[in-house]
Write the structure tokens for this entry.
Amino acid sequence: MYIVNGLKNTLIITVFAALLGIALGFVLAIIRSSHDKSDKPGIVLRILNFIAKVYLTVIRGTPVLVQVMIWYFGVFTSPNTVKIMVIILAFGINSGAYVAETVRSGIMSLDIGQTEAGRSLGLNFFQTMTNIIMPQAFKNVLPALGNEFITLLKETSICGYVGMMDLTKAGDIIRSQTYDQMMPLLGVAVIYLVIVMILVWLLGKLERRLRSGERRS
Amino acid sequence: MYIVNGLKNTLIITVFAALLGIALGFVLAIIRSSHDKSDKPGIVLRILNFIAKVYLTVIRGTPVLVQVMIWYFGVFTSPNTVKIMVIILAFGINSGAYVAETVRSGIMSLDIGQTEAGRSLGLNFFQTMTNIIMPQAFKNVLPALGNEFITLLKETSICGYVGMMDLTKAGDIIRSQTYDQMMPLLGVAVIYLVIVMILVWLLGKLERRLRSGERRS
Amino acid sequence: ACGSEPKSDAAAGSSSSEASGAVTGMDDLPGKKIGVQTGTTGDIYATDYEGDEAGTVVERYNKGVDAVMSLKQGKIDCVIIDNEPAKVFVSENDDLKILDEPFAEEEYAICVDKSNSELKDKINQALTDLKADGTLDEIIGHWIGDSADQKSYESAADADHSNGTLVMATNAEFPPYESLDGENVVGIDADIARAIADKLGMDLRIDNMEFDSIIMAVTSGKADIGVAGMTVTEDRLENVDFTDTYAKAKQVIIVKK
Amino acid sequence: MIAVSDLKKAFGNHVVLDGITTEIRKGEVVVIIGPSGSGKSTFLRSLNLLERPTGGHIYFEGVDITDPKTDINLHRQKMGMVFQQFNLFPHMTVMKNITLAPVKCGKMSQQEADHKALELLERVGLPEKADSYPDMLSGGQKQRVAIARALAMGPDVMLFDEPTSALDPEMVGEVLAIMKELARSGMTMAVVTHEMGFAREVGTRVLFINDGNIQEENTPQEFFSNPKHPRLKEFLSKVLA
Amino acid sequence: MIAVSDLKKAFGNHVVLDGITTEIRKGEVVVIIGPSGSGKSTFLRSLNLLERPTGGHIYFEGVDITDPKTDINLHRQKMGMVFQQFNLFPHMTVMKNITLAPVKCGKMSQQEADHKALELLERVGLPEKADSYPDMLSGGQKQRVAIARALAMGPDVMLFDEPTSALDPEMVGEVLAIMKELARSGMTMAVVTHEMGFAREVGTRVLFINDGNIQEENTPQEFFSNPKHPRLKEFLSKVLA
Ligand SMILES: Nc1ncnc2c1ncn2[C@@H]1O[C@H](COP(=O)(O)OP(=O)(O)OP(=O)(O)O)[C@@H](O)[C@H]1O
Ligand SMILES: Nc1ncnc2c1ncn2[C@@H]1O[C@H](COP(=O)(O)OP(=O)(O)OP(=O)(O)O)[C@@H](O)[C@H]1O
Ligand SMILES: [Mg+2]
Ligand SMILES: [Mg+2]
């Protein structure tokens, strides 16, 4: 069934691109927020911050379709490239830009005292980030990250442009075969809705678990 | 020129849909956060909150393409519907759902003391919201709203499905006429990038102006 | 699905008709709202009417099926579309009909990258052979016409595939030229490409993608040929090369009864 | 002026106020003390319904404000409230902070309100800060603006919830000075505070809230020199140490 | 133990510390007081480079820690710091808060750290809170955990920045008690505080910081009974009022 295959690809792309996006996003967010929070950023940090800003502007400023096309037809031109890998890479890099700004807002909203407490105990920058800042920032921006993943899920629908069959494409194929305008479209919409509802539910559970130590206020 | 026409449509749709989205989003955010912040929400509030939640789930859960199609082919079936109005409506309603959650996070991050101060002075709920809560929430979430408008701008590219010519579509037409694949695509990407950069610049200016009274920390 | 000669000069027939009346032929098009699928030949020729003094509007849809829905709802006056899908739309919708007068005739060709004239020559040779030995007509006969049995062309059992793989980019949403049957792309274009590959002693691999990506796949080297009911135009020749044509088709006008 | 009868408040199962009955008469300065979490803030906030009581009644100038039919906004306009965290509106100048409510509630025109605001800023010693934003003020200055803001509505009673707890020690004095001046001018006040000096000096009555009840209630004199309830004795010994 | 020589710190053009020279010897309890915004916190935070000085040198156990080549993390491990706002890690249990640094810095195995943590919780009187999250603790309890956390690294000196200012009056005592006990056990301490009683009772030396300098420095006895600088006199009169 087209739908099953398409759904499988949609899920694979979304999940791996999301993971890549989170990894990239966290790194970028750390760079950007370290820069913004420091009085007098060093030269290395300033260069990194500049690169990060260009990345954010270009990636968020151009249509993801164009990015996917450039990666697939412009960069990985070898006929042997594994299509799904390129797509995951393109979406991961795209998503990373959005995740970065989201996570940055989570980091910026944390009290600077958290970092200071970590550093004052003798933890280095990296230990402080991974043990203290990131877990809290992640928890704080989980709802916004949810938004981002929902967007990502639906954005993967453009991968038909590089010949990948995803859920939307599966619907299009059925539309072209049956000449039925609405039904395949609605069917696909319902599947997206179900995925989103599962995702929202999972995120809600995760959020509650992460917040278990918190006082209800 | 296709590009000029397409750009015009893209801008019109984005601007009006964004305005509609902000209006809707604020109303929804007020409902949701009033509900979440109150100990014992009344029955009216609970019903409104339930409706808001369904709206958020369905709208965020289904592809915007499907929503546009349903509005255009399913709801406004009259031959006299003005296409661009339907598209603005569809995107506005879609965007409203995302704006709502963004604004809600801005409201929730405000100290409850702000509301209490307003109410204790004898301002009613509505006055407190419009004079005290909303301006601050808006300022706080401006960067996230920026994200949302960038997404909206690029999402309007699907209106080719209902036969509307936007910027992306204009590029597609040129591509199909000339079979020149990269140039129109890159040209369109550059235009999007320029719009996004202008938008980011404007938002940055606005944010700085709104923050003028704030202490740098 | 994409561009040769319109049957009559588009601009010339634009004087007489009444903007509000029904479309009964090409002469009625000026002043009407015409629906097309972006990038089709119908789109390209309808564009000649766009912005004329009669105020003709061309609405370009990403998918033909959506243009047809707009027509049914009366949002547009007619749809110009390839003959084959048009037949299916009309058979499934009692309130639609195809005008007898075709809008344009067109001929399909295979596109190859400009730098690859060696391949183009080989394909032209193969096409000439296939036309000569009747394979081409046989393939088309399996998919179009009264005797269509939708049977795919099969390579001969002893076919030689030692010259590597020929990669074909297509958009399998355009039956009977190409559509999906399970995992496989089937249809006239697929069969012809396979027959050509056999002639070249190559294996065929079909990559199914969005129509808008096919040229890019060919120019970037991801695919060797694009076969998707493409029509040759001057503008397009600036950017890609086309082989000789392999099939004839026409664009027709659908209107409400 | 305010009569509280059998006031109850529970958050879920957690009973915070368990039937409080008392009265605040015109011109009185009632000081409320008690351990942390004992419900002092809850009590004070119930007086203008920032917390909805779960039982009992509150009469303000004879009207039962716990009755859902009462327009609480009208009554709140007659009760000024000052919070520990100041709660100034950070997006408005000091002037705007003070004039917002009088203008929006239709009590005054913007001109009248501006005029009154300047008068009040004079009174709290900050006439030169009219156009500053709250973030540019020190804690003590913020709290003085907050007092001016509450006074701008011309309230009949002022409620203070630990108005000096968030202040630097040097600034406590300036806020207490304003409050003393206010008390001397005859304003009816209810004040939650840990400043025992203030309670002694200007309080007309002191309440000790603990375990959801008023466990002791007396003139400052008696209250501090002769506490009766053992919990109050323990409390005073820790705080006055 | 810590020698500070001509320490300067400016934020942009705003000079906060203008050449401070002093010494903290082993076993001393140095109390730092001064008006709000005078740079007390900045001074204390400079000692473990939470603020990077813009001039001067700080020697810790003989090593110039302001030298960029020094590994400051190693030195910070020997300086415990306690903040006004506790700064516990809200996403970790009390136990995890205390053991995180010793384990991550490779000083102890998790078992050893757990063992030590329980010992320290015993010492600050909170053995039963090991598995609680910070948000479930009262302010006084939070600060005691923060002290235990700092002690877990076995520091040679403890820095306190207004450890009781964010506490309810009833809880101030319990934290001061722990600090007194610590002082008596011979710990070297530098304490910014407004608790004059503590300064008098356990301080070995008191510094008055104002206008970017140490304006007065003396034994508690002399400092309080016989202040010399006029600004100090004014300050003490306001705070002790
Ligand atoms: N919105 C709320 N939801 C649940 N419990 C609450 C809420 N507000 C207060 N409480 C609880 O009610 C009790 C009394 O709180 P309250 O703030 O009135 O105490 P307080 O006497 O003012 O203490 P403090 O001196 O710390 O200000 C506390 O146990 C507190 O946890
Ligand atoms: N990160 C910073 N950027 C700019 N200025 C700062 C920064 N940190 C402190 N300052 C300024 O330095 C001065 C001294 O601040 P510091 O916090 O050291 O004072 P303090 O004596 O600890 O005051 P308090 O009693 O209020 O804690 C203040 O004027 C403050 O505004
Ligand atoms: Mg309180
Ligand atoms: Mg300080």
Q: What stands out?
A: DSSP finds eight helices and twelve strands in chain C. Chains C and D do not touch (no CB pair under 8 Å).
